[in-house]
Fold this sequence. Notes:
Elements: E1 13-19, E2 22-27, H1 30-34, E3 41-45, E4 51-64, H2 65-74, E5 86-102, E6 105-110, E7 122-125, H3 128-138, E8 148-153, E9 156-163, H4 165-170, E10 173-176, H5 183-195, E11 202-206, E12 219-224, E13 240-241, H6 250-257, H7 265-286, H8 290-295, H9 306-318, E14 320-323, E15 326-329, H10 337-348, H11 353-356, H12 365-376, E16 389-393, H13 402-418, E17 428-432, H14 447-462, E18 468-474, H15 482-486, E19 490-493, H16 499-508, E20 527-532, E21 535-543, H17 557-561, H18 570-579
Parallel strand pairs: 10-18, 10-19, 11-16, 11-17, 12-13, 12-16, 17-18
Antiparallel strand pairs: 1-2, 1-7, 2-5, 3-4, 3-7, 4-5, 5-6, 8-9, 8-21, 14-15, 19-20, 20-21
Helix pairs in contact: 7-9, 9-10, 13-14
Amino acid sequence: MxxxxxxxxxxxxxxxxxxxxxxxxxxxDLDRLRRMQVNRLVVLQSSKAGQHLIxxxxxxxxxxxxQELSAKEDGEPLESEPLMPQLNLVRVSLIGTxxxxxxxxxxxxxxxxxxxxxxxxxxxxxxxxxxxSFMRVVANVAxxxxxxxxxxxxxxxxxxxxxxxxxxxxxxxxxVGSTGSGKSWTTARVLEQAAILPSVNALVLDLHGxxxxxxxxxxRHYRVAGPGDLGNKKGLKDGVLYLPYWLLGYEALISxxxxxxxxxxxxxxxxxxxxxVKMKKKFLEQKxxxxxxxxxxxxxxxxxxxxxxxxxxxxxxxxxxxGARGDKQGDFYGKLSRMIARLENKRTDRRLGFLxxxxxxxxxxxxxxxxxxKLIAGTSNQSDKKGGIKIIDFSEVPSDILxxxxxxxxxxxxxxxxxxxxxxxxxxxxxxxxxxxxxxLRSEGDAANEVSIKIFEKIAKEGRKYGVxxxxxSQRPSEVNHTVLSQCNNLVAMRLTNxxxxxxxxxxxxxxxxxxxDVLPILDTGEALVVGDASxxxxxxxxxxxxxxxxxxxxxxxxxxxxxxxxxxxxxxxEAWRKQNLQ
Length: 583
Ligand SMILES: Nc1ncnc2c1ncn2[C@@H]1O[C@H](COP(=O)(O)OP(=O)(O)O)[C@@H](O)[C@H]1O
Ligand SMILES: [Mg+2]
């Protein structure tokens, strides 16, 4: 099916001049000029049959010919201005070619210019259904099957904005915008459509419990255990998630237990590493897991006893050895004291209960199978055949260790995908909300940040090979790690007011379309600039409201103050703060 079937009389205008990729089109009358708008698409006749050139309107001017001429002579416009002939000019930047047929493929769009238009070539509008089908070609979206649609084009409400669902996740995506610009709603819109797919597989890292209202058979909710959940035996079934310490890699454990500024830090790191290996070995020996014993490393997800580790390190710290003249202090005597204090602090901190106070069964080898199925299986492989989109609420995780815990989940996901054979590997997407909090620009000497950056950089670079797609969501793109951002080939930019953030996003736009960056600060709430692999041409899209809307957490100050009475929660708040438990 041909997309463009124009008759000559439908032309908006004709080409007046051509300059490489820039074309000036002369528009005959005002009615036609009114149908043109900056950033809209037009199509131009090409000198080759079976090809059309696609352009974006950059500038529209209307001037009176005589007026310009006379103004040059005496500097004053003539009084009879309205009677002067008008010159309506539209500047169009050419961006690609639509070819009717290449081999057996119909309607192929290329971001190259294989020809330029000739003088007097006709220029037509691309709108309504023609725009929809053209953009579908651009996004390479099949006519059949489940589609990913964000909403409608701002400049043309009759045309639906589709994305190529394969490319969107394959080559990673970012959703950016100032706070309140509609990122979470856009994310919800994407999730909602994915949720319908029978084998969908995604993890949503939800830092503030914003996505709690989302529902449907394809969606399930987990919450990282908070202090109020501890000791709750049924915990695991309630969607409460424990992430035991033994899942942390060596570097993550070190960053938690060893203070780098301590002069004994290298010794402490060495001892704890050595002892953890011993403990893991002991565990495997007890379980008679022979095959594992031969190959495990310090980073292997093997449980070990924290109590025994603690006791052993205490021993080393107080060890006396035989010297030439009686007993003397061991090599590490007293050198581990500060690490021991740190360890003890963390171990007993109820806010870290999800790490250190998990139920006993979480310290068994088989427990990781269960956790992995929960997190990494798509809908059709879940035990209840539901909920392949897993929204994990991290709101009770203390902010200083947030990067460690989020990256633990990311590492688990990536490692499992890496260790799945190619035939069985099922793609999974990681939606990272508020990414600047745990994938920062620089680690700033913070060991937890370093661990997290490393894992996310790895996923950004290698994820495609292993079927892990990232969707980075942030209000401060300039504060998100640049290596990670630069690997994202899809951009959904919502309103952005901060200049630094705008610059980061501008750099991600294709060169020939730099002007599009100018709309960033003036986008409406819920409106997005979309460009990338999944949609080769940049376009302004009005994102459709999701059915179940995330909590935006906006409080109406003035309205609430205007009420004659309000709830009194102070006593409860003091109590909850002390107990570290809101329930
Ligand atoms: N697509 C949309 N259509 C209409 N209103 C929207 C849309 N997206 C967001 N909004 C409005 O903006 C508010 C903030 O959106 P939200 O997605 O929470 O912003 P962000 O996550 O960027 O901070 C929402 O509560 C809603 O009122
Ligand atoms: Mg949000």
